[in-house]
Write a sequence for this structure.
């Protein structure tokens, strides 16, 4: 597969998946989702890969969905159907959670919308001090996708997950560490070195034990993940993406104004 929005490299047993589409801050459209699926599946199959790192070279880890694309559809009067995209991003995060290799998310800048659960899917998050984690979906009249609500509930509990999903407020790196989903916070200029240090440590560790620890944790906490994605997340996002509130939220975001929701 020809990769256009990310890079995939393997060095000394470490597969590095680098999102590199600064034009829209690594927004996860269908092409980006397809490339992420390919990279995750390639890393899982490759016996030379011991550890996987997700990172970005843009000023944001990922801004989430491609809101500009949906805005263009709205202005043109076209149909908005997110079903295929929602299915693909769920496949990405479930692939990360269920893979046999340890995964590190190296987060700088904003991990917003789909970018937040993409980072949450990793086994370890190392965050630069400038990192912001934002469940921004509600600001557009949408519900979390990419497994966001599911993953957050398991990471920080139902009440805190409800707060972040319902308010869409930013969580900085320090709060993320206090909540328990960030493993380490470092100055931005030290992010690459800190990530590589952990990746090398894991790559030199007991890989069979790591594989089976991941298998146990997936069975204990994520065995119904696919059922949630297919049976709950996809249909709820389908309903929300076909509302006047989504059209208003998307338009307000692009037009840099406050949204006026009507609840329909």
């Amino acid at each position: 597969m020809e990769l256009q929005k990310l890079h995939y490299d393997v060095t000394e047993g470490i597969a590095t998946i680098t999102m590199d589409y600064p034009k829209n801050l690594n927004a996860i459209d269908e092409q980006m989702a397809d490339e992420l699926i390919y990279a995750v599946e390639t890393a899982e199959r490759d016996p030379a890969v011991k550890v996987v790192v997700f990172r970005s070279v843009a000023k944001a880890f990922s801004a989430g969905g491609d809101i500009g694309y949906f805005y263009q559809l709205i202005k043109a009067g076209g149909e908005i159907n997110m079903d295929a995209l929602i299915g693909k991003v769920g496949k990405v995060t479930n692939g990360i959670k269920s893979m046999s290799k340890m995964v590190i998310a190296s987060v700088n800048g904003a991990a917003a919308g789909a970018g937040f659960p993409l980072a949450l899917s990793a086994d370890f998050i190392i965050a630069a001090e400038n990192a912001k984690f934002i469940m921004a979906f509600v600001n557009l009249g949408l519900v979390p996708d990419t497994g966001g609500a599911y993953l957050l509930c398991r990471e920080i509990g139902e009440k805190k997950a409800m707060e972040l999903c319902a308010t869409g407020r930013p969580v900085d790196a320090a709060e993320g560490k206090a909540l328990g989903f960030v493993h380490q916070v470092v100055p931005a200029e030290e992010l690459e070195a800190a990530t590589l240090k952990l990746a090398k440590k894991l790559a030199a560790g007991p890989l069979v034990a790591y594989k089976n620890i991941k298998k146990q944790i997936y069975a204990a906490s994520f065995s119904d993940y696919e059922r949630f994605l297919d049976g709950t997340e996809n249909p709820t996002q389908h309903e929300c993406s076909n509302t006047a509130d989504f059209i208003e939220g998307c338009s307000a975001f692009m037009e840099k104004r406050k949204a006026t929701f009507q609840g329909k």
About this structure: The chain has a mean pLDDT of 96. The beta strands are 6-11, 14-19, 51-56, 102-107, 110-112, 124-128, 132-134, 170-172, 184-186. The radius of gyration is 18 Å. The chain has one domain: 6-189+207-254.
